[in-house]
């Protein structure tokens, strides 16, 4: 069961940072309290408090709901896995939409890690951490495609080095609104968590001259996506004849930041179809042109971002063999593509 911690702020508490005040009496670390605040578990007079920096007010009744502890280790679960390749050292999975890669808040079971623990048994590498055994990289819950998992520490270390050195071939295919300009290009930005929504990532604005001169450390992490226009469908209303309503774009990753392709495509005004976080899901709800109406109908029931990890290539850390794998479009994206052909 969850524990409920509570206290009423006194006069000398007024003006303190919320996280600091709670840590004084809750017997929890500041980092734990911050996580609980961001998870919506802290309230003041019944109202949820979402920021650790909120100032405490005298007389307010503060409560902290501490969820019951979970098992220290993920439990093995029998599930159907689409295994593309497997040997004694690693396994390559074709991940379906809706499957979370590793346990986290809100998804403590039913993840790929749970399935891999059942499939691989005791051989799964633990170097990725208790909740991420064998996981070298990941793809979003609602993104489909290829993922490599290490079965032992040496393989995990070897793959991790290749990812860090940008030597792993990763090609994604996505369906976007509009078309990139120029058609082929390179997007290089810094990405960081949004200050307004911790579940979202955003492009960091370039440093101004004063910040650079002061030697201030740049915010965010470098993210690089190389993209190529493959094909366009329909025509964007009010745009030039050469601007399609929808495009198929291939993206080659040099880095692998959280939500990187989704943020980058939205950044160049080509949000991925079906992306409810970074795309404009209501863009075609007031459609009037024939092509827009057809597209709106095609998107009904398509409830994820149209993004698929189609190519994965790397050097096997143990055998030194060059391996490369391809994954066809999943059924839902194939059906969407067929509908686009009719625009």
Give the SSE map.
Layout (H helix, E strand, L loop, with lengths): L2 E6 L9 H9 L3 H9 L3 E3 L2 E2 L12 E6 L16 E4 L3 E6 L16 H9 L23 E7 L2 H12 L4 E9 L6 E10 L7 E3 L5 H5 L7 E13 L12 E8 L6 H8 L22 H10 L7 E9 L6 E5 L4 H10 L3
Parallel strand pairs: 7-13
Antiparallel strand pairs: 1-4, 2-3, 2-4, 5-6, 6-7, 8-12, 8-13, 9-10, 9-11, 11-12, 13-14
Helix pairs in contact: 1-2
Oligomer: single chain
How many β strands by DSSP? 14
- Ends distance: 54 Å
Low-confidence stretches: none
Mean of residue pLDDT values: 89
Please compute the radius of gyration using only Cα atoms. Answer: 23 Å
Number of H- or I-type helical stretches: 8
CATH class division of the largest domain: Alpha Beta
Helix/strand class: alpha+beta
CATH architecture name of the largest domain: 2-Layer Sandwich
- In the CATH hierarchy, the third-tier topology of the largest domain is known as Pseudouridine synthase
Instruction: Provide the succession of SSEs.
Output: EHHEEEEEHEHEEEHEEHHEEH
User: What share of the residues lie within helices?
Assistant: 10-25%
Strand content range: 25-35%
Number of domains: 3
CATH superfamily of the largest domain: Pseudouridine synthase
Sheet bearing the most strands, described?
A: 10 strands, mixed
Give the CA-based shape: globular
């Amino acid at each position: 069961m969850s524990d409920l911690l509570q206290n009423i702020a006194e006069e000398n508490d007024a003006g303190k940072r919320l996280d600091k005040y709670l840590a004084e009496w809750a017997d929890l670390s500041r980092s734990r309290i911050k996580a609980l605040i961001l998870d919506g578990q802290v309230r003041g007079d019944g109202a949820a408090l979402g920021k650790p920096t909120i100032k405490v007010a005298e007389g307010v009744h503060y409560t902290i709901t501490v969820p019951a502890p979970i098992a220290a280790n993920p439990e093995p679960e029998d599930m159907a896995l689409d295994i593309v390749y497997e040997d004694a050292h690693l396994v390559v999975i074709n991940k379906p939409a809706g499957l979370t890669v590793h346990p986290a808040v809100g998804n403590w079971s039913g993840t790929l890690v749970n399935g891999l623990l059942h499939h691989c048994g005791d051989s799964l590498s633990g170097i990725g951490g208790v909740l991420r055994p064998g996981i070298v990289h990941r793809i979003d819950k609602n993104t489909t495609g290829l993922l490599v998992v290490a079965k032992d520490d040496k393989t995990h270390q070897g793959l991790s080095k290749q990812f860090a050195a940008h030597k792993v071939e990763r090609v994604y295919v996505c369906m976007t609104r509009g078309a990139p300009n120029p058609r082929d290009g390179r997007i290089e930005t810094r990405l960081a968590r949004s200050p307004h929504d911790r579940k979202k990532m955003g492009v960091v604005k370039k440093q101004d001259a004063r910040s650079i001169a002061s030697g201030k450390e740049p915010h965010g992490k470098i993210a690089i996506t190389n993209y190529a226009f493959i094909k366009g469908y329909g025509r964007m209303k009010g745009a030039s004849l050469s601007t399609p309503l929808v495009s198929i774009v291939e993206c080659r990753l040099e880095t692998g930041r959280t939500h990187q392709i989704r943020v980058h495509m939205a950044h160049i005004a080509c949000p991925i179809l079906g992306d409810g976080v970074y795309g404009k899901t209501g863009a075609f709800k007031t459609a009037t042109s024939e092509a827009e109406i057809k597209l709106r109908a095609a998107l009904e029931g398509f409830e994820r971002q149209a993004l698929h990890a189609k190519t994965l290539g790397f050097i096997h850390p143990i055998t030194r063999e060059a391996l490369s794998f391809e994954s066809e479009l999943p059924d839902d994206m194939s059906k969407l593509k067929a509908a686009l052909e009719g625009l």
